[in-house]
Amino acid sequence: MRFVDEFRDADKAHALAAKIAALCEPGRSYKFMEVCGGHTHTIYKHGLEDYLPEAITLVHGPGCPVCVIPMGRVDDAMHLAARPDVIMTSFGDMMRVPGSQGSFFDAKASGTDIRMVYSPLDSLKIARQNPDRQVVFMAIGFETTAPSTAMTMLRAAAEGLSNFSVFCNHVTIIPAIKAILDSPDLRLDGFIGPGHVSTVIGCRPYEFIARDYRKPVVVAGFEPLDILQSIYLLMLQLSAGRSEVENQYSRVVPWDGNVVALKAIGETMELRPYFEWRGLGFISHSALRVREKYAAMDAERLFSVPGVRVADPKACQCGEVLKGVLKPWECKVFGTACTPETPIGTCMVSPEGACAAYYNYGRMNRSRVPEAARAGQS
Amino acid sequence: MTTDQAGEAGQVSSGWIADALREHDHSQRPENPGGRPALPVTDREQQVLDRIDRARRRRPRVREERITMSHGAGGKATQTLIKAVFLDAFRNPLLEPLEDAAELRVPASGGVADGLAEARLTLTTDSYVVSPLFFPGGDIGDLAVNGTVNDLSVSGATPMYLTAGFILEEGFPVADLTRVAASMRDAAAAAGVCIVTGDTKVVQRGKADGCYINTAGVGVITRDISLGVAHAQPGDAIIVSGPIGDHGVTIMLARGELDIEADVVSDTAPLNGLIAGLLDAVPDVRAMRDATRGGVATILNEIARAADVGVLASENDIPVRPEVRGACELLGIDPMYVACEGRLVAVVPGNSAELAVQALRAHPLGAQAAIIGSVVADQPGIVRLKTAFGGTRIVDLLVGDPLPRIC
What we know:
The complex is a heterodimer of chains A (378) and B (407). Chain A is 36% helix and 16% strand. Chain A is α/β, with parallel strands linked by helices and 378 residues long. In chain A, β1, α2 and β2 form a beta-alpha-beta unit. In chain A, α6 crosses α11. The two termini of chain A are 39 Å apart. The model of chain A has no long low-confidence stretch (mean pLDDT 92). Chain B is globular, with a radius of gyration of 25 Å. The chains are: A alpha/beta (378), B alpha+beta (407).
């Protein structure tokens, strides 16, 4: 298939593996964080780690939209959905995220009107078809999905639709990366930058990482060769003692981002003073809410939500996994009490979650390609 | 949360890390990397993998309080439901192998005089709730016939007789029902089976979705064979009879919810002719399954689990039409899990593999048959896939419900 197979070429992967291995200094180990859950998924789905030397460890970051939604917000959404006048609409990923009283799927099985949509525009369609009900869109995700929520709100406003609203849980990636960089317990050598987020925000927001923290950043695409090449670029920077922001995904990511999308977000949403991230706690200025001007489309203003903070189950170590402090299998409930079919923590729910990716794809004895196995040997 | 908490969170941007670390220190876990420096990483990881393996082999239990759509998706939840509820309630030696059809031995008329002490029959049943009822390449009628014909055929039997039960919703157009019946008639004729008894029920509007069909079927085993996925052995080859995922993708697109158009039609077809040719050429076939709900991935897992062997498949060798692959890429679905209605997976001894592929390719329905993998001794219970990219990953049972009501 064109535009796909080119980026999954095994011969090129072997060539890159050899180049990466050649850059490994004997006795040195390297830790790179792929910030985005989409990257985590690609890495496991294609078995990319087979191409990496033992000295290189990939640390899975917090960029999985459903993984960072705290239990309290799920409960709030359930509270909204339970109202007889409300039709709750949600992306499929969100359907299995456990709140303290079960997931959307469980609520749906008990008769709550929750519908899965592929785009917020589908919610708009449902709103037009059900003028007597309030259709709430469960908005989640980073800057990647925020523009589509914003555009949908703008369209609803243009149409004068009065029964569509948004339960806004959009988060922003930079404060989360900053928090990880400030964390004393994690030593990272560089970042594989989130490609989809960067299509919106561009590459400039990462410059502080290279400048202030002296860590290289390579914004990467989502095919396996993209990621392998990005690791190569990171290794090149490290071997030359550089720390810069590079754009491997230039076929999609403009350096300055997508101005139209950013304007739409800015028009409809503003930063919250603080927001709770699952497992990570409160991070200031890390999420978006609906602007006063669009209050009529803000489900939080239209309906009262309990807004109660619900602590994660004690056994759950999603926070450490999201920060990259623990590998998925190091969590004490991983794979036994917490599995994709009965997840305790969010990292086990979404296909982009580090735990789900490892459980579904990586739970086995791995063998490295010869190029990677030879790394560090002189 | 209170205003105090808010202020705190606002002022100390990395306060959450300290909290998380405190919690972390509290939990005296053996795997705690900050704790005792016990085993090397690979050994600790292996311990966890072993622990998971033990957990996966435990008796399944349904944890949900209510049925969710996942219970019907053909993946993990379906298997758990079947084992924990139905197998527990009905347990008997004929049901226990959980094959597509049960094998029954009944005294044969004429008896020992004919040299046959007993006849070997197979019995199966399946319900059809596909939505939409009519889709490119078929409808619920031929699906209901072919599905049951195929369940009998993969058990090594010659399908003979079918039943047909209808649950109809008040208001369902008679013209549609006539159309469904006609396509059942044609499908039965094509497969060489007779529909010999049936049942009709009508429920109030809203209590069903137009038309549901149940068919049961009886077949007879005339060959001296014993098939079952538990017979798979290291060294065996795994073959698929053609491109996978056509049916599932067709149904998904036919619903029109995705605004994707592609030139795909359902692969619904009776497999008895194809299978007869295969068994004529390779009498020592070990097992066959038709790849319906849960797709090829589910069958590979059933092989690994039932025979306690490893399965190693190669992504490059699995036939998938470009249209199907394209739709799956767009939707983030793995074709390995997408249903087929006219494809089979066969396990054959390694030295018969080429012969089996030739036999399948001799039939129009098997023209693109291919060896997709092999049975191996290491990592029993686990299906591994060599990806087109050249890496390796696990292919597990499906969790959740990407494509509801495909059959």
